[in-house]
Every structure is written in C-alpha cells, then in structure tokens.
From TrEMBL:
Organism of origin: Symbiodinium necroappetens
Enzyme's top EC category: transferase
Positions of the Pyruvate kinase barrel domain: 78-261
InterPro entries, alphabetized: Pyr_Knase, Pyrv/PenolPyrv_kinase-like_dom, Pyrv_kinase-like_dom_sf, Pyrv_Knase-like_insert_dom_sf, Pyrv_Knase_brl, Pyrv_Knase_insert_dom_sf
Name listed for the protein in its UniProt record: pyruvate kinase
C-alpha cells in the first residue's frame, strides 16, 4: 500500500530543470506555467488570496501566468528538499513549505509507523492536486542496523588502547572484556589476519580482528561444530567509551544479508 501510494496521483513535471528565472518572494514576469497529468496538459492552480495576504507571503516562490494568476513557480535551476518532522507534518505547514519553494518532501522511515507515512503522502498528494503542480516524495529507508548488547554497568565500559575485547552470541550482560553481538552474519564473516576492522559508535572506537573461534556448551573450540556459536577477539586500536546498543560497522567485509529490512 505504501509503495502504491508513492505513485498514486503523481504529476509528471513539465519544464522542471529548466533555466532559473524566478526568485523567492516576488511575482515574476508572466509565464505559461503548466503541469501535466498523464497525457493531458493542465494549468497550474492559483494561490488563494487569503494565503497571498499573509505576512509570510513575501517568502512564497511564486510567479504570474499569462492569464495574470499568481501560482507556485516551477522553473528552477535547483530543487529544494525539506525533511518532514513532527513540527512540519500538518496540512497547513506542508502547504506553506510547498508555497515557499519546496519541491521534494523527504520522509524519514527510520522513525514513525507506516500509517503515519501514508497519512503524510496523502496530504502531499492533496496539495499536489490542489495546485496542479508536481511534488516529489523522497523515502529515506533506514536499512539494517547492527548493534552490540548491553553491559553490567548501565554507563558502559572504557576500552583501552591495545586491550583485547570479545564479541560473542552470549546474551549475558557485557563487561570490560566482552559483550554480546547478536548478529551471527557479522561474526561468521570476520576473519583474523586480514586487517579487518570493526568500527563502533559511528567510528569513535576502532578494533581489528585478531582471533576467531566457537563456543560449544561454554567451551572454546577452533573449528565450527554442531551447536557452536561464533566469537571474535579484537584488539582495540582507537580507544574510548563504549555504551550499550552502540552501532557496529564492518567496512572491510561483505555481509550475507539484505539491505532491505521488513520495516
């Protein structure tokens, strides 16, 4: 439903990307502003007088048609992108942002529910229909997130330069020597001796893999066996404070996982 909504009611741009001629906050020389829906040309709808009489109307990106109507301009050399958040999700605010020149509304799918995004899409498409002006929607997908587990100390641990630190599948709370990494695809892909790095907390902490093994009933083995879970030991190369649920990145390996999550 969400995928279909992104296309429903879309207007194909006519004249977008042409030379910039209109400035923000002024009525330009008359131009034949039109858009298209399917194969049928439609004229852009005028901006209502009550909005043109607002104190903020001087911020509108507007132009005048050859019929003398004031409409939203579309002949721009650059497109404006606005991220929609809680403060800008109302119909009134979305309309004002559009009139001020927004060409693309970015929806952040890392936050909120699909129903919320569908509601925003409906509002944007209603504005598009009202002004008969093409509006693009950019869906920013979160993608998979790999994070370490939690620690015995809620404040996390301080990792020192050169120390060894283990990542394993054990759900027990971590300490200054180990922590859970509930992502077997990462542990399976990592190998020692290949200068493979782990970047934690957006790269603030860095490690290199020095040993890999498996745990079977709490005992370490070097080779994979039935019921074994992998672990890796790393040497800290850039020390720092590691807190619970911080991100883990592996720039030197290709993970066997899809970049598209169910969310």
């Amino acid at each position: 439903a969400l995928r279909n909504a992104l296309h429903t009611g879309s207007l194909q741009p006519a004249g977008l990307g042409e030379m910039a001629g209109e400035g923000l906050g002024r009525v330009d020389e008359p131009t034949p502003e039109t858009g298209t829906r399917g194969d049928k040309d439609v004229k852009a709808a005028p901006i209502p007088d009550d909005l043109l009489n607002l104190d903020t109307a001087n911020l509108f990106d507007k132009t005048r048609t050859i019929q003398g109507e004031v409409v939203r301009s579309c002949r721009k050399g650059a497109k404006q992108v606005a991220t929609v958040g809680p403060a800008s999700s109302s119909m009134e605010m979305l309309e004002k942002l559009f009139l001020c020149g927004v060409d693309v509304f970015r929806l952040n799918f890392s936050h909120g529910e699909h129903e919320e995004k569908l509601d925003l899409i409906d509002k944007i498409r209603d504005i598009e229909d009202k002004y008969r002006h093409p509006i693009a929607i950019l869906g920013d997908l979160q993608g998979p997130k790999q994070r370490c587990g939690k620690f015995e100390d809620p404040d996390g641990v301080e990792l020192k330069l050169g120390q060894l630190f283990r990542f394993d599948m054990d759900p027990a709370l971590g300490n200054e020597k180990r922590v859970q990494l509930p992502h077997p695809e990462i542990l399976e892909a990592l190998e020692p001796g290949k200068d493979q790095r782990l970047l934690l907390d957006d790269g603030k902490i860095r490690m290199k893999v020095v040993r890999k093994g498996y745990l079977v009933d709490g005992q370490e083995v070097e080779q994979e066996a039935a019921g074994a879970t992998p672990f890796v030991e790393c040497e800290v190369t850039v020390p720092g404070h590691l807190g619970a649920r911080k991100g883990v990145n592996t720039p030197d390996v290709i993970l066997n996982m899809s970049p598209i999550t169910p969310k």
